[in-house]
Structure formats: structure tokens, C-alpha cells
Amino acid sequence: AFRNGLVPGASAFWLLADIENELGHPERELRALESLLAVFRSDDDAAVARLWERVATLRERLGDQDGARAAWKSAVGTAPDIPELHRGLARARLNAQDIAGVATSASELLSRFPRHVFSHVYNGHMKKALGDRAAAAASYRHALVLDPGCGEALYNLAEMREAEGSASLLTQATGLVNRDDAPAADRINAAFAAARILDREGSFRQALDYLALANQWAQSECKRRGIRYDRRAEEAGVTRIIRDYPRTVFDTAIGSLPIELVPIFVIGPPRSGTTLIEQILSCHSEVEAAGEIIAARRCESEFRRARSTAGRDGPLDPANATDAELLENARERYIDALFERGLSGPRVVDKLPANYRIAGFLRAMFPESPVVHCVRDLRATGFSLYKANFGAHEPWYHDLGDIAHYLGLYRKLMSHWQAVVDPPCIEVSYEQLVANPEKQIPVLLANAGLPFEPACLEFYRSDRPVLTASHEQVRQPAYTSSIDHWRNYSEWLGPVTELPAR
Prior knowledge:
Elements (H helix, E strand, L loop, with lengths): L7 H16 L2 H14 L5 H17 L3 H14 L4 H13 L3 H14 L4 H13 L3 H14 L4 H9 L6 H12 L6 H18 L2 H21 L6 H14 L17 E6 L6 H9 L4 E5 L3 H15 L11 H20 L6 E5 L7 H7 L5 E5 L2 H10 L12 H21 L5 E4 H6 L1 H11 L55
């Protein structure tokens, strides 16, 4: 009935969006939906909000976290009495590392929908990010009282090392895994929860069985949404990056910033220690932490498009007037993005692991900025990725062969950067850092251009909110138990075991 009431042009956009959805073209579907929303008005607020929900979901799928947040906000503003829309906005804010936004969502969910299970789940997430573990656990337990089949609450409770009642949690998790009628997301979370508990108990073979189930189901969900890891495309992408950034790129530098703000970029694959290094640096009095923001990657994408439009191709050349101007424009947009988050320096840590792919662009854009590369045994990194339950799943996380392939390309690209980038990236060994923080942290600070401050040695005392998967580790003193933990599973990890240590 809602569609029948649309003006003809709007009906055409809706039909086009449905066709593009069937064909598996999310970008085109998104454009059709946004055109649809621009040309009609309706009194059916719930239906309009559902359209915004569809736009938000597509933007999440396409990796546009800022666009997803904006679409979810429009959905909530149109129909504020639908709890699932508030949940979507909370998730988008969590994925975008929007601390204040997550706090707002958690408060609104609790006040508007106190009997809704995810009101308590997101309150738990917020408390956990703030380091209030007791309050977080209480919120997750409350959620499980409301819905014993809530896999997200179950996993987050099982993740806490000191969680009480591990035996009952394991029973609850395995029961949910075996429920064929349970939603896929809940079964995935439950399988990861069971694996986490069994791993702590030393039941490694059983833990791996649940990890395999969790990753198999998560990979199936990715494929259902049209998300696949394309090895050939990834290889081609790395080849293009190496081609476009030869050593000559760094022979010429664009002009210095007219303001006293120096980003410190922390890069490396996920689970390599990037959050730990960010936590250490953020304890310095001269440093602010931006978290995992996508500003640099967005600037790089816009730079490539602008460069193509200008008729520039091949290796970047900062000595070329057009390339230099485009780099300066990109840098200005990046600084604007920091200012929009209230970050003004004098040092700002930008910690997005995937930025290792654009390390050359970062150096070209900010010739004087430190780029800290977190180096960890690739076998340990690969296993840690396989057992991690990330909120937003990348397709290569869920297959040991894909993990090994991805990390091999990462190693190839980082070898290139270390050979051509000038000055080179600052390499920090995760293993050396956790084994001897008193020695390694002063070296890290000095290399990043910062004077030593004792507070950085006590990084685990910081009350800074942490929303990444490493929130547990950075609230404890450095420990070495995770260095060789992968060896408990080595006989079953196949291609990951064959990766080099470096």
C-alpha cells in the first residue's frame, strides 16, 4: 500500500533499488534508494524509517561507517519508537569508535526500552569500554535474563577472564550453538563464547572445533551478503600500490603544515598490538587518541579519484604541481576530520590497522609524521585473528587459507614500504614490548619524537575508553602469555603455521 501511494518517479526508483538488490549491486541499490528518499514525502513514518534502515545497512556493508551513522540517525529521527533502529544506530556508533555517541545510544535505549534486551547489551558495551567490568558483566547478565538466547551478551560475558560461572556459561553457549532455530548471529557468538571458555580451560582441541564452527557460519553469512575475499583482486591491489609508490615519491616533500599538529600513525594487521601502542602513546601529556578512524583511508580514496580526474596516472610525484596540490588538499581534509572530532594536538594518534596499505600516502601527505609499524609473529597474529570475534566481520578472517594469503600480502607490502619510505616506519616488536616494557616504551617515545613520561609505563591505569577487541589486554600490565599461545593449536592451523615469524 505504501508503494502504491508513491508518485511515479519514486516508484521507479524503488523498483530499480529492488532490481539492483537482486543483481547484487549494493552501490547502485544505494544510489537508487537515496534518489527515492529525495523525491517523496509520506505520513507513514515507520515505512520511511525502514527505508533509511536499508540505506544504513548498505552503507555499513560498503564500509562507510560515517554514512551509516547518518542514515541510522535519520531512521531514528523519523520513527523514534522503534527499538531496532536505536540498536542499529548504537552499533554504527560502536563500529565508528564514536565514544560519546555510544554513551548517548546506551542511555536512550535504557530510558526508552528498559525491557529490550539490547538496551542492556549496549549499556554493557559502554561500561566495558570505560573499564567498569563489574557493571558491564551485570548488564550482560541482565540481557541474558531477558533473553537467554542473546549470543552477543553471552559472548561478551564469556570474554571476561574473571567471569563467574564459566561451567554454566559453557552449557548455555553449547546449547545455543546446537539450536537450529536460533538466528545465525546468535549461534556465531555462542560458538566463539564456547571456544573462549574452553581455551581458558586448556581444552584446545574442543576450543578449535567451536572456532571452526563459528568461522564457518560467519563466512557463510558474509557470502550471503555478497561479501567475499577475492585473492586475485587483493594481489592486484598490492601490485598497484607498489607501482604507484616507488622510492622517487619520497624525494620531494610538500610544504609543512601551518599549524602545530602532528599525527602519529599506528599501523599493522589487526591483533598485532596496535591498540596497546595507542594506549601507551595516549598516556603522554602531549598526545590525544583518535581511535580507529577512517579519515585517512577516505582521503586516500578521494585523492586517487581527483588525481584520475586531473588526468594523472602512474607513480605519485609530489614534485608535480598537480600532485602536490592534491596532496595538500587531502591533508587539509584529514585535519578537518580531526578537528570535527575535537582533536587539535599537538600530537594525535591515528590507530587504524589497515592504514598499513596506505603508509606511502600517509608519508607523502605528512612527511614529518611518525608512522609506527606494529610487528608481531605472523603465526600468532593469524591465529589471533581466527579466534577473535569482531563485531564487523572481514571475509578473510574466517578461513585459515585466506588469513595466510592476506598476511603474506601484508608482509610483501610492508617490505616495500620499509625499502622506499623515507624516513622509514618505526618498527615496534610486540614480543619485545610486552617482555620488557620498561626498556621498549622509552625507545618508542623517543622514536616518535616525544620526551619520556612515567605515565606511559602505567598505560593500564588509563581510564580512556577503549572500544576495540583488545580492550581487555590494555587494562592490564604487559604480559607474555599470548606470545606463544598459538602453539597450542599449531598442529591444526595448516597454512597459518607455515607463515614466517616476520
